[in-house]
Write a structure and sequence with these properties.
Layout lengths: L1 E7 L3 E3 L15 E3 L5 E3 H10 L16 E2 L1 H12 L6 E3 L2 H5 L19 E17 L9 E4 L4 E4 L6 E4 L2 E4 L3 E3 L10 E6 L2 E6 L6 E4 L5 E3 L5 E4 L2 E5 L15 E7 L9 E4 L4 E4 L6 E2 L1 E3 L5 E3 L9 E9 L2 E8 L12 E4 L11 H10 L22 E2 L5 E4 L2 E14 L2 H4 L21
Parallel strand pairs: 9-12, 21-22
Antiparallel strand pairs: 1-7, 2-6, 3-4, 3-5, 7-8, 7-30, 9-13, 10-11, 13-14, 14-28, 15-27, 15-29, 16-26, 17-18, 17-27, 18-19, 19-20, 21-25, 23-24, 25-26, 29-30
């Protein structure tokens, strides 16, 4: 984060073209509405939920589409780099004598002070979450901004508190949901080590991250992943060590959805790896054999050749198992993706010493560039995954796309906070000109 102090004159205010007409604050993520004016994205989305008129002109809006104003955002960023003075202008006579449409609370931004003042401009990272589906969700098509203060998502209505190392933290922002498939405290996004981290808060239905093309996810005891509607878990009896008598084996159990022919079935994966898909020729086939020997798929959301499990020798006696999307290295990727379920917050405290030792050894591979858990998370959010551009994650049945940007926030620094405010009132309008005609 960068800070820049802007020394302002006693009659300088933020220019109207850089101010959101709704919040009366500096635009962070400007978008253009149907009326041709620019607004803050999150504020305008909330406005359009209950209004069909322009918040600036009061006229009817032909549509509710919002277009990003990239030129205005770049202009604000350039002016900040040049010192920030270009964002402000001197109050004109029109400001003093023309009644404003803005609420009285926002007029304090235009008040005059007897002494020069300072404004602090802070540039900070901003995470943008855009809902992709389903269509029936109230979040569909909307965008949510996550600042460095973080956010907690779920059906909760009060601030979330979590104890970390005998200290209690409180979420600064809440991302509310109404869907029954989402827990009251479902997931948390926090900012640390210059990254945004996604973490599951022991939710019932889980938080999933889509496996990126070409990426591989390590499969460890307790690891869970999802193809279509089916979820599999790596059993604790899996063996990652090899010797003269035993070979490494990965044991996978299908535990969801309820009623599936594969539910509670255990699959044994050897050092040759495995393929997963709807076609019957796969090592793990999501199909059902009928009486006439015909094989039919049991999950239409799973591709014919959906994913694969590969092995890699970590040391002379230790084998690692990895999950990749797509059946072959150069083949076609799955249609609906392969999803990694984030470990619950409490899962690490429930591991025994042997499991933690194995996890620490295999997690060394997470630092490779093509591992989704790179870089390693901070200790207080162990099990979280650092979000990257174009990531997708799933909470309940709601899918979000991840994008990054940065915003400029206008703050008062210590200098301006020490100034004594002067009572403000609008000067009387100029007297009307008298008609001198007889």
């Amino acid at each position: 984060m960068e800070y820049r102090v802007v020394e302002l004159g006693n009659e300088q205010v933020l220019r109207d073209e850089f101010r959101c007409p709704i919040t009366q604050q500096l635009l962070r993520v400007p978008v253009i509405a149907a009326d041709g004016h620019s607004y803050e994205l999150s504020s305008m989305e909330r406005w359009l939920e209950n209004h069909s008129i322009s918040p600036k002109t009061g006229e009817f809006l032909e549509h509710k589409r919002l277009v990003p104003n990239h030129n205005l955002k770049r202009l604000i960023e350039d002016l900040v780099q040049e010192g920030g003075h270009g964002l402000y202008s001197k109050i004109s006579a029109r400001h003093l004598h023309t009644p404003r449409r803005t609420p009285p609370a926002s007029r304090c931004a235009d008040r005059l002070v007897s002494n020069p003042r300072s404004t602090l401009l802070k540039t900070e990272p901003l995470l943008l979450l855009q809902c992709l589906d389903p269509n029936e969700s109230t979040w569909n098509g909307k965008c949510f901004e996550v600042s460095t203060k973080g956010v907690v998502g779920g059906r909760l209505k009060t601030l979330y508190r979590r104890e970390i190392d005998d200290a209690t933290t409180t979420a600064e922002c809440i991302m509310p949901f109404s869907e029954s498939t989402i827990s009251r405290r479902h997931f948390e996004i926090s900012f640390a080590q210059d990254s945004f981290w996604l973490m599951d808060l022991d939710s019932a239905s889980g938080t999933f991250l889509r496996l990126r093309p070409g990426a591989k996810a390590p499969l460890l005891p307790g690891s869970m992943f999802m193809l279509g509607k089916h979820q599999l878990i790596v059993m604790k009896d899996s063996s990652f060590y090899i010797d003269d008598e035993n070979d490494a084996q990965l044991l996978l159990e299908c535990f969801a959805p309820d009623g599936s022919p594969l539910q509670n079935q255990v699959f044994v994966i050897g050092q040759d790896g495995a393929t997963l898909g709807r076609r019957s020729s796969n090592t793990i086939s999501f199909s059902h054999q009928l009486e006439d020997q015909e094989s039919v798929g049991i999950d239409t959301a799973i591709s014919s050749e959906h994913a694969r499990i590969e092995t890699e020798k970590f040391s002379d006696n230790l084998i690692s198992f990895f999950l990749r999307d797509g059946a072959t290295a150069h083949g076609r990727l799955s249609t609906n993706g392969t999803w990694i379920r984030l470990p619950p917050l409490s899962s690490f405290s429930n591991r025994n010493d042997d499991e933690l030792l194995l996890f620490s050894k295999l997690s060394l591979l997470d630092r490779q560039p093509d591992i989704i858990t790179n870089p390693p998370p901070p200790p207080h959010i162990r099990g979280a995954i650092a979000l990257q551009t174009d990531d997708e994650f799933l909470v309940g049945t709601i899918r979000f796309h991840v994008a990054f940007t940065h915003s400029v926030i206008e703050l008062d620094d210590d200098v301006s906070s020490q100034l004594q405010p002067i009572p403000f009132s609008l000067p009387p309008p100029p007297p009307e000109e008298k008609n001198n005609q007889c």
